[in-house]
Amino acid sequence: MNYRYIPSGKAYLLYWLLLMFSCACNTYKKDTSVKLTAALEAAGINEAALNQVIAHYSQSPGDSLKLAAALFLVENMPGKGSMRYAATTNCGAFKQDLFVGDAIGIDSVNAIKKRIEDSLHCGPIKFVNPVFLADCRTISASMLIENIEYAFKAWQQPWAKKLSFEEFKEFILPNRMQNEPLQRWRKWCWDNSGWIFEKAGGSTDRIKIAGIVNDSLRKYYGYIHDNINYFPGTFTMKQLLATKGGRCEDLNMAVGYWLRAIGIPVSTEFTSYWANGNFGGHSWLAILDTTGKFVPMNAIYDKPVRDSLPFQDMRLAKAYRYRYHIDEGTVLKEGQYFQSYYDITKEYLPTSDYSMRVPKEQSGKIFLGVLNGKYWKPLQMQTTRNGDTLVFRNIASTAVYAPVVVQDGREENTQTIGTPFLLTEDRHIQYLVENKDSLIDISLDISSLSDERYKKKCMVVYWDNVKKDWLPAGIIRLLVDDPRKLREQKIKKMIVFSGVPANAIYRVINVEVPQHDKSYGRPYVYNEEMKTYNKY
């Protein structure tokens, strides 16, 4: 579905209605009718509910700002929604909701699940057949009006009053944080927010108040990703209360709802793939400070700290911020989830641009990838092309990259088409091309190795730029020292692997077990500036 439409048909009357109110309300743009028509057409039979909201705020010039807010929400609603999954067993549909109970916790939920599975003798309960529930097709007029009314109440809080209307629309007004199910949360949170004001003690510091909310909710929720890997969806607040935790998206929802309900401007940010991790990426919250800067915060776990990143040892290659607004001309596929976002890497980290020559035979899209899991994963980023030169914009330093293409439309299936390189802390590019004619010894700090390598037979594998895969090299070594104990005792002890190609990317694997995506550990590269092998 292309997002550019000409007013016609059922939307024609509404188009003229909006023109009548243009004198009283100049807060919507000239092309509002185009985006609005697209949204109403996407709503299908729910168009009447959206029209009802707009008509509600079109009755009085005094509601012109609320009308503009309603238009903003409706115009940019296509593509937003949640996925619903069907619970099933080998015997058919399973209609019971597993995620219920008064703060029973995920262990109890999983124990109940196991007990039900054992009693049914129908195999495991699975969540399959995802169906996209589009907001524009499912939201009620009363829910949308309630959201707008209480968002405006929040805007009057002393820490929110100075927000511009544009900031209010993006960071207070939206009724969702990411792709969680639709739910009424704003009025309930507002009505029950007295504890926040009491703990704030009269402070109007947005960052302090966000920290108070985060700390308080930590008593009730935690991160339980590994315990719910059978459930691919996102929880509701009610389900989250039962499980007492969820994934980062679930925790963002819980904290984000409370913050927006009281007028703390907050957005969701994310990275698709960590630069130095094997477990995908992460999403977090960011508070818009009065300085105009965003202060990132891990929901539940960390207080927001100005001019600081809350990721401990994890490193970003790219960071993005979600936004509710959809750019004019965006092409949306009907019935498919879409979330607008933009690159914010430069706000948080030193960055550089990287240029490469495009191979003549390459016609598809080229990405920069990072090693996340066994192979390279593609990062979305701005690029510019001039002839056969492609420039990747704003990549973070202290990471290993490689130009890649995605095969079969699957991000987990990539192939390198250029030379991997290290972008050093000082933002110098160091190319990594293995030299098989020069076999060397490499000396690695044992404390940096995975704890799982202890008492295992270990071998180095290196990235072969011709084979485009990991190949074994050198001799097998038994790791007799415990990496964890060396870290605890702050002892530096080295292990040497002999007979490996120079200038390569290296990994240390356990040769006693079959390898999988997460078992490869992190790569080591000789940093020419630091004159040492570092883990990335």
From TrEMBL:
Which PROSITE patterns does the protein's record reference?
PROKAR_LIPOPROTEIN
Which residue intervals define the domain Transglutaminase-like in the entry? 206-299
Q: Quote the protein name from its UniProt record.
A: Transglutaminase-like superfamily protein
On the tree of life, the source organism's domain of life is Bacteria
For this protein, the record's InterPro entries field holds: Papain-like_cys_pep_sf, Transglutaminase-like
User: TM spans, by residue?
Assistant: none
